[in-house]
Amino acid sequence: MQDIFFEDFIEGEVKTFGSYCVTEAEILAFAREFDPQPMHLDAQAGAASMLGGLAASGWHACAIMQRMACDAFLLRASGLGSPGVTEVKWKLPIFPGDVLTLRRTVLESRTSKSKPDLGLVTLRLELLKGKNEVATEQQLVILFARRNPGARLA
Amino acid sequence: MQDIFFEDFIEGEVKTFGSYCVTEAEILAFAREFDPQPMHLDAQAGAASMLGGLAASGWHACAIMQRMACDAFLLRASGLGSPGVTEVKWKLPIFPGDVLTLRRTVLESRTSKSKPDLGLVTLRLELLKGKNEVATEQQLVILFARRNPGARLA
Questions:
Q1: CB contact under 8 A, B35 and A81
Q2: Complex ipTM more than 0.90, yes or no
Q3: Which residues on neighbouring strands pair with residue A110, listed in sequence order?
Q4: Which residues of chain B have a CB within 8 Å of the CB of A88?
């Protein structure tokens, strides 16, 4: 079901989605495959590191964020892809047992001049934990199809 | 063995590392877990998308890049972590069978004023494929311990 289009992203809108509990097993599995630095693999090394304990790779945090965005809205949306990310900030470590939510802020929404059936949406996505502390933050641009291509926007 | 320190990152230096062939199985496995959008899961959907074929999630590209950086230098280095990434550009899709190399450019290298035993290194990392075309590019800052804390740099 594809029922979310460019027009549904309203500048300034803030929404919070989901609730996901991170396990030690998945932190270890991701780290073994993609980021086998000691602080992501070993409790003692994590405790001795700046992270203060065994903590997820920053890239794992980004991957979890993408999955939460898929479940929250991307899989229902007319998303066509993304040219990239303008910023990722790893602000707080993510530990086993942390419960994460995803906060989405629509920073900018504009139609494409060269391709009037497309819109570009700049989102700030934040992974929150604990008392809504920001663990990871990113800004990215996603291309969405328009529900009414060529229509004049309000 | 930890034999790479802050002092080993020389501004302007460009190095190329590794050779990694991406398989369809790993593209599908990553997408199922973290980015189950159709263009990362299904050949027909990929062909109909802007990617032009079944292609890896952009976050998978970042994860592969991190693994190649670990194997190339991070696991031998005094890396203490990263506050974040200032830019990720997904420039070309990564298809099954693509052979990737990692190119590292040292953009900036400076010691920390508040913590003289630390240095901050800004790297541009690029995943290359084919005839050295840039598929994914990122800039990030990594903190490294100094070999000679407090020593005056040349």
A1: no
A2: yes
A3: A120
A4: 84-85, 88
